[in-house]
C-alpha cells in the first residue's frame, strides 16, 4: 500500500501543473481569497458597520504580504494577486469609513433619511387634507 501511495505521489509530482495544484503555493492563496471576496461584498453595505481598526490592520497585512509574495523563491504571483486585491478593496473601505465618520458622510446620510421621512409625512398630510376636503364638500353639498 505504501508503495502504491509513493508511486501515485511520484506521478502527481512529475507533472509541473498538478505539482503546483497540490502545493501550498496554490492552496494558501486560494484559501486566502475569502478575505478580499468578503471586502468586495461589503462595499455595498452601509459604511456605518465598517471597523476602522480592522480595515487598517487588513491594509497593513495585505501590504506586508504583497511584499512577501514577491520575496519568496519562486515568486508567488497568486498570493501577490490575492493581497493586491485585498489591499485595494481595504483602501476603498478605509475611504468609505473616513468619508462617513470624518468628512460629513454621516450627516449627509442622516439628512437624506430625514428628507425622505419628511416627504413621506408630507404625503400623508396631503392625503388627510384631501380626505377632509372631500368630507367638507360632501357635507356642504347636502
Automatic annotation (TrEMBL):
InterPro entries reported in the protein's UniProt record: MPC
Pfam families for this protein: MPC
Keyword Transmembrane recorded: yes
A GO cellular component annotation in the UniProt record: mitochondrial inner membrane
Main location: mitochondrion
Signal sequence region: none
UniProt subcellular location: Mitochondrion inner membrane
Mode of membrane association: Multi-pass membrane protein
Gene Ontology BP annotations: pyruvate import into mitochondria
Keywords noted in UniProt: Membrane, Mitochondrion, Mitochondrion inner membrane, Transmembrane, Transmembrane helix, Transport
Function: Mediates the uptake of pyruvate into mitochondria.
Recorded family membership: Belongs to the mitochondrial pyruvate carrier (MPC) (TC 2.A.105) family.
Name of the protein: Mitochondrial pyruvate carrier
Annotated source species: Clathrospora elynae
Taxonomic placement: Eukaryota, Fungi, Dikarya, Ascomycota, Pezizomycotina
Amino acid at each position: 500500500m505504501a508503495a502504491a501511495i509513493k508511486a501515485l505521489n511520484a506521478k502527481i509530482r512529475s507533472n509541473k501543473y498538478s505539482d503546483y495544484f497540490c502545493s501550498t503555493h496554490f492552496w494558501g492563496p486560494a484559501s486566502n481569497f475569502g478575505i478580499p471576496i468578503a471586502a468586495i461584498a461589503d462595499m455595498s453595505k452601509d459604511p456605518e458597520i465598517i471597523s476602522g481598526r480592522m480595515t487598517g490592520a487588513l491594509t497593513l497585512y495585505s501590504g506586508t504580504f504583497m511584499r512577501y509574495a514577491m520575496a519568496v523563491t519562486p515568486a508567488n504571483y497568486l498570493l501577490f494577486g490575492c493581497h493586491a486585491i485585498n489591499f485595494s478593496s481595504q483602501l476603498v473601505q478605509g475611504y468609505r469609513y473616513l468619508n462617513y465618520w470624518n468628512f460629513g458622510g454621516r450627516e449627509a446620510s442622516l439628512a437624506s433619511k430625514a428628507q425622505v421621512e419628511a416627504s413621506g409625512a408630507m404625503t400623508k398630510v396631503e392625503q388627510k387634507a384631501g380626505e377632509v376636503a372631500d368630507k367638507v364638500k360632501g357635507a356642504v353639498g347636502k
